[in-house]
């Protein structure tokens, strides 16, 4: 057994408030997108959208019966909340007005509808709500019914595309939050792998990692997948009582947050010394991933990067690419995965300010090789906002560590 399994506390202050001038800039940008899309009112119900435009963060919004909503127009920003949430909203300088409701979700929906109705200069309005792909807004059938009563032609549109056109461009403040989240999970993984040993279970190691992530300063850390395998990888399942043995690869995906921004960092390790082909495959896959990450440039499209990746992969002769997903990367911000996708079909123009996670995956002879490198696109290239994957495959010694 490892004699020193003490988890280490890393001092890290709470994440800072979003600067008010940055919130103003976000609101200005979304209003331009609303004008471009001919939308008069946007209703926000997804907690990530609410945080993005208001920096309203609370520990009690998990209660689904008393949700908060946001109403954006060209000249107003309103947050609708129950009395207990209103107290939190009013506890710091804000750029929005607060509307309180008494009751539950039906009363919240009615408060949203009344705000839209009373603010209409004339007639019905063009209304959109953040329901759609990659956004899971809160609401109810009553919300859609009430909005349809107020909407032009009785149609409520999706606001997802216009919202992501704003959110895809990250500021240096957002990149700094992501950078800190990455540092938290990278350090935690290295700390915990150094304490792993033959016989430890997936469940125990995953809990050690989650605890260390919190001690390193994460503000939240959902349950994470932790797999030990030598050929039967099933990603996304809960950690089991499977015990680590020589030849196992350890795979995990870490989603701890700082300032609400999740790390989303995949890491791997091996139990026992690798064979020569594993060492070589590790180096070649890592090198290829970094090369693809460096190839992002403003003016290219996501499909251009993907096609370049396919050429590099073919030339590297690494074997068949993991085929259960159609992309080898994605955007990242307040949500774990965001548009755009690095895929053959995504025509999104790459712009300065975008953040991408680049993570092609290779399963070979029972081993797993995956390196999730994270970049921030700048005017003249990219900036890595996570420490690169280790030069060499992390190893858990194939013998129990003995006490001194």
Radius of gyration: 23 Å
Give the averaged pLDDT, no decimals: 92
| Beta-strand share of residues | 15-25%
In the sheet with the most strands, the strands line up as 4-3-2-1-5-8
- Structural category: alpha+beta
Residue share in helix: 25-40%
Describe the largest sheet. Answer: 6 strands, mixed
First-residue to last-residue Cα separation: 11 Å
| Assembly state (oligomeric) | single chain
The number of E-state strands comes to 21
Number of helices: 10
Q: Shape from CA axes?
A: globular
Q: Which residues sit in consecutive blocks of at least 5 with pLDDT less than 50?
A: none
Structural notes for this entry:
This protein has 404 residues and is an alpha+beta fold. 33% of the residues lie in helices and 22% in strands. It contains 10 helices and 21 strands. It has helices at 20-36, 47-54, 83-89, 105-119, 141-150, 160-167, 172-193, 202-215, 276-294, 302-316, and strands at residues 41-44, 69-72, 77-81, 97-100, 125-129, 131-132, 135-136, 151-158, 226-229, 249-254, 257-258, 261-262, 265-271, 327-331, 338-343, 355-358, 361-364, 367-370, 373-378, 381-384, 395-396. A 6-stranded mixed β-sheet has the order 4-3-2-1-5-8. The protein has a 5-stranded antiparallel β-sheet with strand order 15-14-16-19-20. Helix 4 runs parallel beside helix 5, helix 7 (172-193) packs across helix 8 (202-215) and helix 9 (276-294) runs antiparallel to helix 10. It is globular, with a radius of gyration of 23 Å. It starts with 19 loop residues before the first helix and ends in an 8-residue tail after the last strand.
């Amino acid at each position: 057994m490892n004699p020193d399994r003490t988890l280490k506390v890393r001092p890290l202050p709470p994440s800072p408030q979003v600067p008010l001038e940055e919130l103003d800039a976000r609101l200005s940008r979304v209003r331009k997108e609303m004008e471009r899309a001919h939308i008069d009112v946007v209703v926000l119900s997804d907690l990530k959208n609410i945080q993005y435009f208001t920096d309203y963060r609370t520990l009690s919004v998990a209660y689904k019966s008393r949700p908060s909503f946001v109403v954006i127009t060209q000249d107003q920003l309103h947050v609708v909340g129950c009395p207990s949430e209103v107290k939190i909203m009013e506890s710091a300088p804000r750029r929005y007005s607060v509307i309180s409701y008494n009751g539950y979700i039906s009363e919240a929906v009615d408060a949203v509808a009344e705000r839209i109705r009373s603010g209409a200069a004339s007639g019905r309005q063009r209304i959109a709500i953040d329901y759609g792909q990659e956004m899971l807004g809160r609401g109810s059938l009553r919300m859609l019914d009430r909005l349809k009563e107020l909407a032009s032609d009785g149609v409520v549109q999706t606001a997802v595309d216009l919202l992501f056109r704003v959110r895809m461009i990250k500021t240096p403040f957002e990149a700094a939050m992501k950078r800190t989240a990455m540092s938290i999970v990278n350090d935690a993984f290295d700390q915990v792998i150094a304490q792993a040993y033959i016989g430890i279970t997936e469940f125990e190691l995953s809990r050690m990692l989650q605890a260390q992530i919190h001690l390193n300063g994460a503000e939240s850390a959902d349950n994470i997948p932790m797999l030990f395998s030598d050929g039967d990888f099933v990603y996304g399942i809960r950690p089991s009582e499977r015990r680590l043995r020589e030849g196992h690869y350890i795979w995990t995906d870490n989603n701890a947050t700082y300032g609400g921004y999740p790390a989303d960092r995949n890491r791997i390790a091996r139990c026992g010394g690798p064979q020569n082909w594993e060492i070589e495959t590790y180096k070649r896959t890592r090198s290829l991933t970094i090369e693809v990450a460096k190839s992002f440039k403003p003016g290219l499209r996501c499909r251009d990067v993907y096609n370049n990746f396919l050429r590099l992969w073919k030339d590297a002769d690494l074997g068949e690419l993991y085929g259960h997903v159609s992309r080898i990367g994605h955007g990242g911000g307040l949500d774990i995965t965001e548009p755009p996708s690095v895929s053959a079909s995504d025509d999104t123009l790459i712009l300065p300010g975008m953040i991408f996670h680049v993570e092609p995956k290779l399963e070979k002879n029972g081993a797993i090789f995956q390196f999730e490198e994270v970049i921030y696109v700048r005017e003249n290239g990219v900036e890595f906002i996570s420490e690169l994957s280790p030069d060499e495959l992390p190893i858990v010694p194939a013998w129990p560590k003995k006490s001194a």
